[in-house]
User: Fold this.
Amino acid sequence: MNIPKHIAIIMDGNGRWAKKRLLPRIAGHKKGVDTVKTIVKYCGKIGVETLTLFAFSSENKNRSDEEVTLLFKLFLSVLKKEVKKLNKYNVRLKIIGDMSLFPIDVQKMATEAQILLSNNTGLTLIIAANYGGQWDIVNACKQAIIDGVAADELNEQTFASYLALQGNTVDLLIRSSGEQRISNFLLWEVAYSELYFTNTLWPDFDTGELDKAIESFNHRDRRYGGRNE
Ligand code: IPE
Ligand code: IPE
Ligand code: MG
Assistant:
């Protein structure tokens, strides 16, 4: 089995999972965290190099104040609780997105966790928080301009080095919950990704579901615009 080097996941369906059980939306987000733990551990075990998870989009701040506040709290408590275990699993952590929206204590914890885990050599776990693919591209343009990059120096490689993922492209993009759209997740990086959609809601997603996605990936003929003759 060929294991994709970089898997990215749009973790969707927490709200619907909760609604089906007449629970508040946050109950779905909490259950979704359990899935994250399972999938992170499993990706490390099977030798995935990079796992990028969409946790909070640039547009998710438009949800109710109550949901956004509870999500920030959940983010903080998960970071606090899980950082030791991530260290034990040799996971390196990188958070991408405009973290300035987050409360100061969350920002501080996020910085501390990334520093603590920075020398690890196992799975690279990237969490997209207040992230938008369009924001990332505009931000990259700004940085390139600030650096004084000349127009004729700019090409796909130099430009990508200014993006949050610095040119690390996605092999397999998974979205749970039945929606078949990108919702402003990684844009540049999915240019040649294989896409996999499942109706399973994120809190119900498990290692068996990931195996199915990887199995499907193994049957794809990746041509990159060329011919595999
Ligand atoms: C995904 O689940 C998690 C976040 C966007 C934070 P949703 O909250 O979007 O769940 P649905 O789509 O309403 O079911
Ligand atoms: C995308 O899901 C964002 C995350 C999973 C974090 P949304 O639920 O916000 O996307 P839309 O609104 O269905 O496109
Ligand atoms: Mg959703």
